[in-house]
Amino acid sequence: MERIGFIGLGIMGKPMARNLIKEGYSLVVHNRSRGPVEELASEGATPASSPKEVAEHSDLVITMLPDSPDVDQVVTGPGGVVEGVRPGMLFVDMSTIAPATTREIYKILKDKGVESLDAPVSGGEVGAKEGTLSIMVGGTEGAFKRALPVFQVVGQNVVHIGGPGAGQITKACNQIVVALTIQAVGEAMTLAKKAGVDPAKVREALLGGFAQSRILDVHGKRVLDRNFQPGFKLKLHRKDLGIALQTARELSLPLFTTAQVAQSMDALLAMDKGELDHSALILLLEQLAGEV
Fold it and tell me: Could you say which of 134, 163, 192 is where a domain stops?
């Protein structure tokens, strides 16, 4: 079995790392805050004091971090992964970051004799805990095949999309569909409530028809229960839409509805709602409708 280094033990990273430990993998872990490190160390993982130390004791290093600057810092900054790698290692970034950053890190590590994959995920905290994430992978076929046994522990739907950066492009597409669907569910449920019709009954009816979706199922229930504890934080989804919009600008492609939903998220961030689940998009609609 590969010795795995895991950096980034947040809402998604910690349960992913835990699943690898349960599968019998030897894990070296690092996180900015020590609590999750100590928790996983009590379950059999080995703590490391820096990304460099993680790399020095691993064959395959996984990062699961919030944004492009975080991954760049962990890989290329002082005490970073690049200082501890050796030829023949594999680096797998499962964060959601800009494709341009992914490709730059790919080049830096390639010069060190290290293969890289970008492998962002979808499925939220529930998928991370249950090992049912969807994983979108960019990189070489050989590197993908090497990492596949690891991916199959943390995910269920694993697809090799193409070359470096292809996984991140796919994740940007995913985040567009998810954001716009959350907005649609929010608009439908707010319309029902404003019209004096029971949103719970509306959801129940829609789940049996062509409008059925996992978002209507899961996030529709969140809205009904007023449960906005984060499975995926609104501020992180706004970051992801920024990646999609920036990539589209580079390609001279207008994304009209994506930009509109991003602005709705901006309004909620200005209202200090960024730490809530992204299903909290409905809160803005409810406020505008006078339904709060």
Answer: 163
pLDDT band at 124 (very low <50, low <70, confident <90, very high): confident
Token pair, residue 163, equals 């070359």
Q: Quote the DSSP letter at residue 45.
A: P
Mean pLDDT over residues 148-166, rounded? Answer: 97
pLDDT at 249: 96
Rounded Cα distance between 204 and 220, Å, is 10
Whether this prediction's pTM lies above 0.85 is answered by yes
Residues 242 and 260 in one domain: yes
**250 and 158, same structural domain?**
no
The pLDDT score that the predictor gives to residue 291 is 80
DSSP 277: B
Q: How far apart are CA 117 and CA 138, in angstroms?
A: 6
Per the structure, the count of domains in the chain is: 2
In this structure, what are the phi and psi dihedrals at residue 58, rounded to the nearest 5 degrees? -135, 160
Q: C-alpha dihedral over 248, 254, 257, 260, to 10 degrees? A: 80
At 67 the three-state DSSP class reads coil
Is-catalytic flag, 14? no
Whether residue 50 is found in the same domain as residue 70? yes
Asked if residues 1 and 8 have their Cβ atoms less than 8 Å apart, the reply is no
- Name the domain boundary from 147, 163, 179: 163
Instruction: Please tell me whether residues 133 and 218 are part of one structural domain.
Output: no
Shared domain for 199 and 265, answered yes or no, is: yes
Residue 105 confidence (pLDDT) above 80: yes
One of 52, 171, 233, 239 is an active-site residue; which one?
A: 171
- Count other C-beta atoms under 10 Å from residue 103's C-beta: 17
Cα angle for residues 66, 95, 221 (degrees, 5° grid) = 75
